[in-house]
Amino acid sequence: MKQETKIHSSLKTVEWKNNTVIMIDQTKLPNKLEYVKFKDYNKVADAIRNLVVRGAPAIGVAGAFGLALASLQSKAKTKEKLLEDMEKAKKILFETRPTAVNLAWGLEKIMETAKKGNDTNEIRKQVVETAQKMAVEDVEINMRMGKFGSELFSNNDVIMTHCNAGALATVGYGTALGVIRATKDSGKNIKVIATETRPVMQGSRLTAFELQHDNIDVSLIPDTAVGYAMAKGLVNKVVVGADRILSTGHVYNKIGTYQVATMARQHNIPFYVAAPLSTFDLKNKPDDIIIEQRKASEVTGVAGKKTAPDGINVINPAFDMTPPELISGIITEAGIAKPPFEISIKKLFESKL
Questions:
Q1: Active-site residues: which are they?
Q2: Which residues span the membrane (predicted)?
């Protein structure tokens, strides 16, 4: 399919080439499409922390690539010493974004591979291959998810989305925006309303950029206009991504998602979440989850220009929790979970065994 080929080749968010991690620097978008290269896992950690790369699936793969770099950087001559060096790197990489479960998943998968290796050369070779395979699988998973999700959307739907859960949040195709792409590819006429997503503006900088880039009709609104758009009948459905989903159906996503879901319920608009099974956390409960608090400067200024008084107290959570009663369905690569989520999510995982 020409559209898919275009998307994959032109917006490859993170990839491995010649023992180097290459990323789109998302802090420069939409003004500049710039790629950065890393050979040091500490630099990859900085890139994740500073949102050069962001979006749960993308940072899962970026973390795996970072750990693969750590194996190459290590001068260890024994398996034990190499694993020790990789554990140190894993800790540094994990602490960059503790709420997004895909990061822990990606790091764990690389460590599992490393522990199975017989010697240092074999470990280095296998962890690089595993990380590369994870990147390829991410695109395949998103395309399967898109196909399932496209069945929930109708011709002439106007779909609202919050933050960026597109090609730029994954290795290539997207979760929520992957569903939107697949819906368009199925021949349906659709339009998108994207929220700005303050304070870092992932909606205006990234979602609007990539949808416009791929010729999908998109309109941008302030976060504060969500209720207005819904009350005016401008929206038929909502689809967002997720950074963590519990077995209970509680969804952790970009701050503001809970408000969008609440408004959707108020106006009887279906609210869907799209995320791969690697985003699910089947062990923890809502009280266990740490919500990442980000720096005050994201709120006290815009593009380096101060907009708030000196010394003001700032509360800047990166994520919020949307309770399951506000969610119409959770779209995954194994199918769509519907309420009651504890039963349907369990069935999805059983189908993958």
A1: 243
A2: none
